[in-house]
TrEMBL record:
Gene3D superfamilies associated with the record: Collagenase (Catalytic Domain) (3.40.390.10)
GO cellular component term of the entry, any: plasma membrane
Gene Ontology biological process: proteolysis
Alphabetized UniProt keyword annotations: Disulfide bond, Metal-binding, Secreted, Zinc
Transmembrane segments: none
Taxonomic lineage: Eukaryota, Metazoa, Chordata, Craniata, Vertebrata
Name of the protein in its database record: Peptidase M12B domain-containing protein
Source species of the chain: Micrurus surinamensis
Active-site positions on this chain: 95
Length: 149
């Protein structure tokens, strides 16, 4: 973590119920406003705005070195779950995994835990482990795409 910015007076972008539009807008803000001021490899927007559908997070796949697309948008649910902070952290890890070239786990993936970070479903328990598929996909991304940040 190289920084934390809290938008307490107003949002710096127009956050829409369409999460794809919000992701694009946040990416433009990162490229044009945040990066000139603070060097970073990836930025996440956490919001309590409800998105259309059941989406809790979104990110581009394999874009860690892109000034505009190395971003994620995460909706923090307004509930009293004791694990809320850990669940948000799990969603953040999941979305960061996407930017690092990792897709959702499939049934054929093996995992030490019951569920792994790149599972396509969100659970009410924090998730800490990456599956065998996630490790292989990230290695392939590094070897084939050779990202240079």
């Amino acid at each position: 973590l190289v920084g934390l910015e809290i938008w307490s007076n107003r949002d710096k972008i127009n956050i829409k119920p369409d999460v794809a539009i919000t992701l694009m807008s946040f990416g433009e803000w990162r490229q044009n406003v945040l990066l000139p001021r603070k060097r970073n490899d990836n930025a996440h927007l956490l919001t309590r705005i409800e998105f259309n559908g059941a989406t809790l997070g979104i990110a581009h796949v394999g874009t860690i070195c892109s000034p505009q697309k190395s971003v994620a948008v995460i909706r923090e649910e307004q509930n009293n779950n004791d694990n809320k902070t850990s669940i948000v952290a799990s969603i953040m890890a999941h979305e960061l995994g996407h930017t690092l070239g990792i897709k959702h786990d499939r049934r054929s993936c093996s995992c030490i835990a019951e569920r792994c970070v790149m599972s396509p479903e969100i659970y009410n328990e924090p998730i800490y482990e990456f599956s065998s598929c996630s490790v292989k996909e990230h290695q392939m991304y590094l070897l084939s795409d050779r990202p240079h940040c």
